[in-house]
């Protein structure tokens, strides 16, 4: 089975992210690091998109072994709709950097 990889947006492309989120129900976003997610989610509130604080971030929604740059999935709701539309999610990706181990010296 071949899984088609979606286009990934940068956090600065909020207009496009919200548009795809509303059309498809999900969107992929690249972030520099996990600590950039909360400020980005705060920025989306101006569009009526709010984090579902009652649902924890899912760090295992996508297998790490299949996609090592997957960071987490965050569920959001669109409060610009009446009633608010739930079941939307944003998958965040960040460049995978392997943990640095102590240098190995060959003697």
How would you portray this structure in words?
The chain has 107 residues and is an alpha/beta fold. Helices cover 18% and strands 27% of the residues. It has helices at 14-24, 37-44; strands at residues 8-10, 26-30, 49-51, 70-78, 85-93. A 5-stranded mixed sheet has the order 1-2-5-4-3, covered by helices on one side. Helix 1 links the parallel strand 1 (8-10) and strand 2. Mean pLDDT is 85; it is low at 1-5. It has one domain. The protein has 2 helices and 5 strands.
What would you say about this model in short?
The chain has about 110 residues and is an alpha/beta fold.
Q: End-to-end distance, in Å?
A: 47 Å
Rg, alpha carbons: 16 Å
How many domains make up the 3D coordinates?
1
Helical residue percent band: 10-25%
Which structural class do the helices and strands define? alpha/beta
Largest sheet geometry: 5 strands, mixed
Instruction: Return residue spans where pLDDT drops below 50 for at least 5 consecutive residues.
Output: 1-5
Task: Give the helices and strands as they follow along the chain.
Answer: EHEHEEE
Beta-strand segment tally = 5
What proportion strand? 25-35%
Please state the overall shape, judged from the principal axes of the Cα atoms.
globular
Number of helices: 2
Strand order of the biggest β-sheet: 1-2-5-4-3
- How much is the average pLDDT? 85
